[in-house]
């Protein structure tokens, strides 16, 4: 069936369903609907979900798919999300919704990861061959401070100020990491260029610092320290960057939508990626302050825990949230 005939055959049902959604949104009486009305609404929701699947399978226009997806998401919120308490909704998001969302937006996630990791690899290779190349990325003063943080003779690894407590460093890490994530996300509105710039910059710093410290002989103080919280921190930075790239793409290629509408729809999805990234960064800060900084533990234990965290992270985003009919996008 051609798209025009498909739309004509279902237009009345879509309009009726949209009107019911508008009525529910304005009345705030979702929990007081008669049983018959609830049943009718659920039937309509299932039909719209079916129509969306057909539209995607047949390759209909992005405008139609976006329209139907919006109706499905709003209906899902009425039936499932808004009836639950905030705590339950938040738990459901991280148990099922967040990993589904990441998989649904994997194109942006892979693009963000490549934009950060490729410069990291290239600068690491360059510095390995010509160690003085690190000064094209960092100043001598900044490099000296980093070397002092991971010097095997230092009292505390990874801290710019050895006298700070774990709680103080936790606050420092949270502020610093979330600031980076918001920079990556918000600068997506600059047609994605700001996000790309920050991803490249972070990749260069990551690769330059890593290879420099390893060549300096600080492997046992640097790698065991960063590997644990890095599972959360680096992944979250990629997700924040993916959200920024979504905003930039919506502005550059809105399809048949206006740029404002395309940005609004992309923003609703991208903000959820940012939410997940922020929570991951808080977890990363906690691990960094209270686990990574522990002295006296053998490096092998920290390495094993770090590897386990990375494996668990990948397993979570690959497997969690499957088997549920609802969609995150």
* Total strand segments: 0
Helix content: over 70%
The radius of gyration over CA amounts to: 24 Å
Give a short account of the largest sheet.
none
Decide which structural class fits the backbone. Answer: mainly alpha
Name the beta content range. Answer: under 5%
Distance between the termini: 25 Å
Q: What characteristic shape results from the CA principal axes?
A: elongated
- Residue stretches low in confidence (pLDDT < 50, at least 5 long) are 324-329
Number of helices: 11
Mean pLDDT rating: 86
- In total, the number of domains comes to 2
Order of helices and strands: HHHHHHHHHHH
Tags for this entry?
11 helices; mainly alpha; disordered C terminus
Question: Would you write up a description of this structure?
Answer:
By secondary structure, this protein is mostly helical. It has 2 domains: 3-83; 103-319, no CATH class. It contains 11 helices and no strands.
Topology:
Elements: H1 3-27, H2 35-57, H3 62-81, H4 86-104, H5 106-129, H6 140-149, H7 166-186, H8 193-215, H9 219-252, H10 259-292, H11 299-319
Helix pairs in contact: 1-2, 1-3, 2-3, 4-10, 4-11, 5-8, 5-9, 7-8, 7-9, 7-10, 8-9, 9-10, 9-11
Offer a quick outline of the entry.
It contains 11 helices and no strands. The chain has 2 domains: 3-83; 103-319, no CATH class.
């Amino acid at each position: 069936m051609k798209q025009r005939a498909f739309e004509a055959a279902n237009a009345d049902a879509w309009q009726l369903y949209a009107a019911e959604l508008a009525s529910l949104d304005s009345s705030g009486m979702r929990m007081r609907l008669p049983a018959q009305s609830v049943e009718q609404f659920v039937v309509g929701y299932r039909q719209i979900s079916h129509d969306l699947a057909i539209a995607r399978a047949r390759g209909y226009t992005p405008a139609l798919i976006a329209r139907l997806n919006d109706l499905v998401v709003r209906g899902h919120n009425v039936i499932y999300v808004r009836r639950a308490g905030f705590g339950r909704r938040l738990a459901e998001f991280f148990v099922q919704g967040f990993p589904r969302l990441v998989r649904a937006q994997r194109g942006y996630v892979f693009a963000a990861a490549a934009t950060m990791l490729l410069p990291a690899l290239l600068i690491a290779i360059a510095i390995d061959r010509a160690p003085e190349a690190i000064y094209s990325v960092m100043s001598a003063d900044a490099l000296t401070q980093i070397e002092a943080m991971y010097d095997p003779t230092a009292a505390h690894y990874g801290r710019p100020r050895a006298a700070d407590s774990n709680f103080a460093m936790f606050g420092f890490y949270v502020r610093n990491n979330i600031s980076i994530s918001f920079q990556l996300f918000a600068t997506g509105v600059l047609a994605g260029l700001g996000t790309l710039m920050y991803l490249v910059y972070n990749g260069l710093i990551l690769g330059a610092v890593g290879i420099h410290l390893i060549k300096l002989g600080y492997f046992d103080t640097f790698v065991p320290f960063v590997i644990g919280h890095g599972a959360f921190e680096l992944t979250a930075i990629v997700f924040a960057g993916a959200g920024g790239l979504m905003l930039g793409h919506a502005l550059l290629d809105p399809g048949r939508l206006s740029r404002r509408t395309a940005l609004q729809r992309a923003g609703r999805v991208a903000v959820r990626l940012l939410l997940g990234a922020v929570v991951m960064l808080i977890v990363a800060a906690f691990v960094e302050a209270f686990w990574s900084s522990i002295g006296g533990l053998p490096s092998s234990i920290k390495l094993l825990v770090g590897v386990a965290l990375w494996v668990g992270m990948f397993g979570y985003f690959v497997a969690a949230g499957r088997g549920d009919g609802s969609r995150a996008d």
